[in-house]
């Protein structure tokens, strides 16, 4: 059984105003980068309580939310009837299990640093997208390890933007771009967050 690192945090996860604002900045950056439409079915990788997907939901037809945390998924389930689209919640570890589905887009916020093998995950994302499907991944710039003050299964202290972009290119994505999306503010520092966008 995989440890649920977010079991103690899920219930009050959205009470952190800075976290909520941070994800809103990321969502706005994604919405500026792409035009979504109601025929689209997208996946939110590492969906958590749905902070990101609820901002995108009014513009798409269906979102498949994928998260390893049972406690976070339960928080998202409580929002189901308030979302602007159909919702499917899958509790699974995409780094260990392949998802045999195709999507028009994949979005993700602050999840990739919890993934050990980035090149393989990006390749799998490419495989899961329809032709011309969109990718939008937000995560931390390289940091000193102080962003996480507790153990939540972290494999990377952020990412070098150029290396991350190269990994996406090697995975088969085109029209790649990395922009600054937000800054996570914590009592002990400020942590820039990038958004990588690309097309299959």
Notes on the structure:
The protein has 200 residues and is an alpha/beta fold. The chain has a single domain, classed as Vaccinia Virus protein VP39 (Rossmann fold), CATH 3.40.50. It is 25% helix and 30% strand. The protein contains five helices and seven strands. The protein has helices at 17-33, 53-56, 70-77, 118-128, 161-170; strands at residues 41-45, 62-67, 86-91, 103-109, 129-140, 174-186, 189-199. Strand 1, helix 2 and strand 2 (62-67) form a beta-alpha-beta unit. The protein is globular and about 40 Å long. The N and C termini lie far apart (34 Å).
Produce a short descriptive summary.
By secondary structure, the protein is of the alpha/beta class. It has helices spanning 17-33, 53-56, 70-77, 118-128, 161-170; strands at 41-45, 62-67, 86-91, 103-109, 129-140, 174-186, 189-199. It has a single domain, classed as Rossmann fold (3-Layer(aba) Sandwich), CATH 3.40.50.
